[in-house]
Amino acid sequence: MLVVPEKQIAGLMTPEAAFEAIEAVFASMARRKARNFPVVREAIGHEDALYGFKGGFDGVALVLGLKAGGYWPLNQKHGLINHQSTVFLFDPDTGRVAAAVGGNLLTALRTAAASAVSIKYLAPKGAKVLGMIGAGHQSTFQMRAAANVHRFEKVIGWNPHPEMLSRLADTATELGLPFEAVELDRLGTEADVIISITSSFSALLMDQHVKGPTHIAAMGTDTKGKQELDPALVARARIYTDEIAQSVSIGECQHAIAAGLIAQEAIRELGAVVAGRGPGRDGAEVTLFDGTGVGLQDLAVAAAVVELAKHKGVAQEVEI
Ligand code: NAD
C-alpha cells in the first residue's frame, strides 16, 4: 500500500484540488452514485477520548475507505494536537488496503472546500462582504477557501473570545483584504456571505441580526448538542446540506427540527444544485448550507492527495 504521511500533505494538497474533489463527490452523492456509511463515534473511557470512523464508497471515482480518529483533549502533554485522524483507502476491486493518508490537515481543507462549494452555488449575486463567526483553527482555512472561490472586497468578523480575532485579521491581510471586527448585528446586516465555524453549544447569530440577501455556511455544528444559529433563522432560510440524515441529527438543523419549526422535507442537498438536479438560490432572501462533514469528503481529498503523491513520485510503498 502507499503511505502519505501527515507532514507531506501541506506540500501536496491545494485548496483548489480540495475544492474540485468535494464538488465532484457532492454531485455523485446527489446522483446516488456515492454513499456514506453509518458513522461510529464512541467515548472510549480512556484519556477522555472520543474515537470513531466515517466511511463510504464513491462508485464514480471508485474510492472506498474510511477516516478513523477523533478527539483526544489531553494531547497537549504529548506535544500533539487534539484532533487526530488517518484515512485508509481500499481497492474496491479486491478489498486490499491501498493507502494510508494523514487526515489532520485534510480535514481542515475538506471542510473549507465544502463551504466554498456552497458559496460558489448559493452566494447572492455581487456579494462583496464576507462575515466570519469563529476564529479557531478552522477559521483561516475557511476564509482562504471562500476568497479562492469568490472575489470579496472586505472581511468582517466576530468571535466569542475577542482575543482570538487577530487570527482573522492576519488571514485577511495575507489575502489582501481589509478586515474589521464588528458586533453580530452589524455582521448580520453587512455581510453578504457568512461562515460560522465555532464549537458553540447555543445560538450566536440570531434571526433579527440577518438582513438578506445573505448566504450562511454553518460549519461548526457537527455533533448532537452543538448550535450556532437561532432556529428561527434556520426556519427562514432556504436550507441545503451535505447529507440530510446528518443535518437533522448532528447538524445545525437538529434544533429547528426539534423545535418543530421545519420538517426534514425542507432540507435540500447541495450536491443536487452542483449536479444541476435542483434549484439554487432562486431569489431566496437567506440561504443556509448546513455543513456537517461526511466521510466521503475525507475519502475524496485523500484519494486526490494519493494521486498527487504518485505524480510527484513521493508516495511511499509499504508491503502489507
Ligand atoms: P478551535 O478549538 O480551534 O476553535 C474554537 C472556536 O469556537 C473559536 O472561535 C472559539 O472562540 C469558539 N468557542 C470555543 N468554545 C466556545 C463556546 N463554548 N461557545 C461559543 N464559541 C466557542 O476549533 P476549530 O478546529 O476551529 O473547530 C471549530 C468547530 O468546527 C468545532 O465545533 C469543530 O468540531 C467543527 N468542525 C466541523 C467540521 C465539519 O465538517 N462541519 C469539520 C471540522 C471541525
Automatic annotation (TrEMBL):
Example of a GO cellular component annotation carried by this entry: cytoplasm
InterPro entries cross-referenced by the UniProt entry: BhcD-like, NAD(P)-bd_dom_sf, ODC_Mu_crystall, ODC_N
Pfam families associated with the record: OCD_Mu_crystall (PF02423)
Protein name as annotated: Ornithine cyclodeaminase
